[in-house]
């Protein structure tokens, strides 16, 4: 349905068009969204735990986690509120390297990311491995600010950005695909921006 | 195409039935859905505009009306000078125009009178819109849940829903309005003339018969960060505070 009087003045140039998923617009800033107050987590108090169900597999302190192999990822990110930001530069520990340090293969096909504020989000394990995701510690070379999820946030750039849990403090392998915080509140269970899987019921 | 493949689009056409200027920068648009829906106070909708060449722009807007008000929903839209969708509404849209809408959306920043309270609401600028839906819902339900709203705006003339809010406050049925103006002197005894801070939150909580059971904070990111921190410093547990932010 064409809207009377609306023109495509903001249509992105064709050279960037292919990088913007359907229904998204290009944002130069970095908007902040969250369901509650911003937790302030000191790195002295920070830890990261890998779990299989309720059972902890391995736990790292901030110093131990920072001693793991560091990788860089520069990716476009896509928020369900319709902004897309190009070329965000992150540095952190690939989920592959976390698993390697724990000396395990992924025990289940599903993972729940856990955060300091009680936030959770579910991601199929195969979307976290093979270099697809990291626990990011730096954004554009600097520690991630609390607003943007620091000290550490999950980065799963090929899914809508609510999957990239802020203030992450653990990954939990689950037997089933268990909906997380937003997935229980009307958002899509998987969240592929290229298939525009924003809300429950989207294909 | 088989019959089972013909699933209904989540988008529907809505018609603008009334336009009402609220403040110099905020105008309410009343929309009649072609497929009326129920919703909860605090929820939002996505609005989609389509250009002749197929280009589409979508933005989320909170619903200002109470679910009890009928099929028509009210969106109070602030004009953003560098915006794409809000300038269309402010400069082009007229009664009778149609746009596309999807919703209701969101299951976290919502309140029903059955959720109880007391409720502490903190809004900055157009962040008051989803809070207004909660306040109107309370009034429509004749609920006696104690509610306090701290509403921060720059100047008196930018107080969205001003007469309605003051009218509800004057009923003295447990809804308390606290205005804080950041660029003008206060006009009422209970009002302030500064940015939200912990002292303001403590004093507002003393207006409630008991500590809040839930707090909702909505506004720009900077506003929400400051207000949520002030609530925490005032002793409200972080787990009781729900936030909604917009802007960069």
UniProtKB/TrEMBL annotation, chain A:
Database matches in CDD domains: arch_bact_SO_family_Moco
Residues spanning the membrane: none
Highest taxon of source: Bacteria
Stretches assigned to the Oxidoreductase molybdopterin-binding domain: 36-182
Chain intervals for the UniProt region annotation (Disordered): 1-22
Coiled coil: none
Protein name per Swiss-Prot or TrEMBL: Sulfite oxidase-like oxidoreductase
From TrEMBL, chain B:
A Pfam family it matches: NAD_binding_1
Cited InterPro entries: Cbr1-like_FAD-bd_dom (IPR008333), FAD-bd_FR_type (IPR017927), Flavoprot_Pyr_Nucl_cyt_Rdtase (IPR001709), FNR_nucleotide-bd (IPR039261), MRET (IPR050415), OxRdtase_FAD/NAD-bd (IPR001433), Riboflavin_synthase-like_b-brl (IPR017938)
Domain FAD-binding FR-type: 9-111
Cofactor dependence: [2Fe-2S] cluster
GO molecular-function terms, A-Z: oxidoreductase activity
Annotated SUPFAM superfamilies: Ferredoxin reductase-like, C-terminal NADP-linked domain, Riboflavin synthase domain-like
Matching Gene3D superfamilies: Nucleotide-binding domain of ferredoxin-NADP reductase (FNR) module (3.40.50.80), Translation factors (2.40.30.10)
The protein, known as: Oxidoreductase
Protein's organism: Mesorhizobium sanjuanii
């Amino acid at each position: 349905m064409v809207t009377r009087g609306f023109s495509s003045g903001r249509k992105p140039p064709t050279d960037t068009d292919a990088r913007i998923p359907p229904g998204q617009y290009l944002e130069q800033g970095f908007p902040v969204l969250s369901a509650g107050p911003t937790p302030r987590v000191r790195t002295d108090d920070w830890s990261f735990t890998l779990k299989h169900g309720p059972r902890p597999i391995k736990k790292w302190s901030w110093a131990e986690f920072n001693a793991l192999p560091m990788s860089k990822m520069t990716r476009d990110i896509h928020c369900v509120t319709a902004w897309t930001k190009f070329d965000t530069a992150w540095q952190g520990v690939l989920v592959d390297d976390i698993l390697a340090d724990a000396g395990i293969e992924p025990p289940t096909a599903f993972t729940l990311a856990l955060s300091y504020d009680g936030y959770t989000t579910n991601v199929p394990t195969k979307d976290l491995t093979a270099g697809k995701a990291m626990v990011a510690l730096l954004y554009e070379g600097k520690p991630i600010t609390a607003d943007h999820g620091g000290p550490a946030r999950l980065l799963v750039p090929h899914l809508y950005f609510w999957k990239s849990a802020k203030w992450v403090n653990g990954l939990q392998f689950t037997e089933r695909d268990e909906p997380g915080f937003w997935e229980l509140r009307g958002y899509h269970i998987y969240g592929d921006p290229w298939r525009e899987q924003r809300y429950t019921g989207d294909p | 195409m088989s019959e089972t493949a013909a699933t209904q689009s989540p988008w529907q056409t809505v018609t603008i039935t009334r336009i009402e200027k609220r403040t110099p920068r905020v105008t309410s648009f009343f929309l009649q859905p072609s497929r009326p829906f129920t919703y909860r106070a605090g929820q939002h909708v996505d609005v989609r505009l389509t250009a002749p060449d197929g280009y589409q722009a979508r933005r989320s807007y909170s619903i200002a009306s109470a679910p009890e008000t009928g099929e028509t929903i009210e969106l109070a839209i602030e004009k953003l000078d560098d915006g794409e969708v809000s300038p269309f509404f402010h400069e082009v849209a007229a009664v009778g125009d149609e746009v596309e809408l999807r919703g209701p959306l969101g299951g976290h920043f919502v309140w029903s009178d059955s959720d109880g309270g007391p409720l502490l609401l903190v809004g900055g600028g157009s962040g008051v819109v989803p809070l207004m839906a909660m306040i109107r819902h309370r009034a429509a339900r004749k609920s006696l849940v104690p509610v306090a709203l701290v509403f921060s705006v720059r100047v008196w003339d930018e107080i969205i829903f001003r007469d309605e809010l003051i009218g509800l406050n004057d009923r003295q049925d447990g809804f308390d309005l606290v205005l804080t103006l950041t660029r003008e002197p206060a006009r009422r005894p209970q009002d302030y003339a500064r940015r939200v801070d912990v002292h303001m939150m403590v004093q507002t909580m003393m207006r409630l018969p008991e500590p809040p059971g839930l707090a909702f904070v909505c506004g720009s990111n900077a506003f929400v960060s400051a207000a949520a921190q002030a609530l925490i410093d005032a002793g409200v547990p972080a787990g009781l505070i729900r936030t909604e932010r917009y802007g960069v």
